[in-house]
Specification:
With 105 residues, this protein is α/β, with parallel strands linked by helices. It is 45% helix and 14% strand. Strand 1, helix 3 and strand 2 form a beta-alpha-beta unit. Helix 2 packs parallel to helix 3. It starts with a helix and ends with a helix. The model has no long low-confidence stretch (mean pLDDT 93).
Length: 105
């Protein structure tokens, strides 16, 4: 999708269709960063965040959450639960790239 195209020129990108596939991909590839939408099929983004951050193998992986809602309460909860950042869609592609670069330095 759009995010893959945006990031692939600078990073090796592995894409998953949903949270359960994302966990399988994390086991296989141990990514440096995960970008996850809050709204996705089968497993909500907050559930995916909790699954990643509660697993000793993945706890160190930085997570950026994307949401179509600018919800202060959701943002606070996700940051408290371990997300490194919360970005509201639509987002500026350059802003996303700059934020990601900061996490991967």
């Amino acid at each position: 999708g759009y995010l893959r195209e945006l990031m692939r020129e600078d990073y090796r990108v592995i894409e998953a269709e949903n949270g359960e596939e994302g966990i399988r991909m994390a086991v296989m590839h141990t990514p440096d960063l995960i970008i996850s939408d809050i709204r996705m099929p089968d497993m909500r983004g907050d559930e995916f965040l909790h699954a990643v951050k509660s697993d000793e193998r993945f706890r160190h992986i930085r997570m950026v959450m994307l949401s179509s809602e600018d919800s202060t309460s959701e943002r606070i909860q996700l940051l408290q639960d371990g997300a490194e950042d919360y970005i509201v869609k639509p987002f500026n592609p350059m802003e996303l790239k700059v934020r990601i670069e900061k996490f991967l330095k």
